[in-house]
Amino acid sequence: MKHGYLITTALVGGMAMATTAYAAGDAAKKNAANVSAQDQSMAPADAELTRKIRQEVMNSNVSTEAKNVTIVSDSGRVVLTGQVATAEEKASITRMARGIATNVEDRITVRQ
């Protein structure tokens, strides 16, 4: 969808303000809603951020369940979602992400 906004804005210059406002409204909705892998930005910097965090998690000693958390980067903001077995795993993954990115939101839950 982000690419659609950019194309629409470029093609219809007079509608740029309305399109940009709509995109900003969508971003606010994403902040309040669950984030999925489909929300991953295709910007090279965001893709690289996600790759670095994923690599760190995969090379760690957390469980397979914890290695499957969702990591989404958009405009330098990282959101972690998913479920892990223990509070220690949650803290470990969050610490790994914060060692790579400065803006990390931890939405990981611990399985009951």
Question: Can you walk through the features of this model?
Answer:
By secondary structure, this protein is an alpha+beta fold. It folds into 2 domains: 1-33; 35-112, Histidine-containing Protein, Chain: A. The chain has 5 helices and 3 strands. The longest helix has 17 residues, at 16-32. The N and C termini lie far apart (35 Å).
Content of β-strand: 15-25%
Tell me the span between the first and last alpha carbons: 35 Å
Which bin fits the share of residues in helices? 40-55%
Q: Structural class per helix/strand content?
A: alpha+beta
The level-1 CATH class of the largest domain: Alpha Beta
Q: The CATH topology of the largest domain is what?
A: Histidine-containing Protein, Chain: A
Q: Please outline the major beta sheet.
A: 3 strands, mixed
Strands of the biggest beta sheet: in what spatial order?
1-2-3
Q: Report the principal-axis shape.
A: globular
CATH architecture descriptor name of the largest domain: 2-Layer Sandwich
Q: Count all strands and give the number.
A: 3
SSE pattern: HHHHEEHE
Number of domains: 2
